[in-house]
Amino acid sequence: MPFDIGFAELLLVMILALLVLGPERLPKAMQTFGRWAGKAKRTVTNFNHQVNRELELDEMKKKLAEHEAMIKRQAEGTDLQKLRDEAEKKIQAAEAAKQKAEQALKSSSKNLDDSNKQR
After folding, report:
1. Is 10 inside any structural domain?
2. Is 12 inside a domain boundary?
3. Where is the chain membrane-spanning (predicted)?
4. pLDDT one-digit tens code per residue, 26-38
5. Phi, psi of 18 (to 5 degrees)
6. Domain count for the chain
7. Would 2 be classed as within a structural domain?
8. Are the C-beta atoms of residues 17 and 26 closer than 8 Å to each other?
9. Domain span holding position 95
10. How big is the CA angle at 4 (ends 29 and 31), to the nearest 5 degrees?
11. What pTM was estimated for this model as a whole?
C-alpha cells in the first residue's frame, strides 16, 4: 500500500529537512535516503518475485499431479496398464537376480581370498 503523500506534504518535509540539516548536509542526506529507498524497493520486488515463483511452482505441481492421476485413471484396465505391470514384475525379477549374483560374487571372492591365504 503506497503512502498517500501529496505535494504539500512533500514540500513541508523538504523545508523541514533544509532547516534541520542545512544546505551543506542536505544533498548528502538525500543521496543516502535515495540509496536506502532503492535498496528497500529492490528487496520488496525480489521478495514479491520469489513469492510469485513459489506460487507458480505449487500450481504447476498441482496440475502435474492432476494430469498423472488422470493418465492413471485412463490407463487402468487397458493394455498399457498390463504392460506396465509386466514391466514392473520383470524389473523386480532382474533386481532379485542381480542381488543373487552379487552375493555369489562376494562368496566366491571370499573363498578365493581364503584359499590364497592358506597357500
Report:
1. no
2. no
3. 6-22
4. 889 889 989 999 9
5. -65, -40
6. 1
7. no
8. yes
9. 82-119
10. 15
11. 0.45
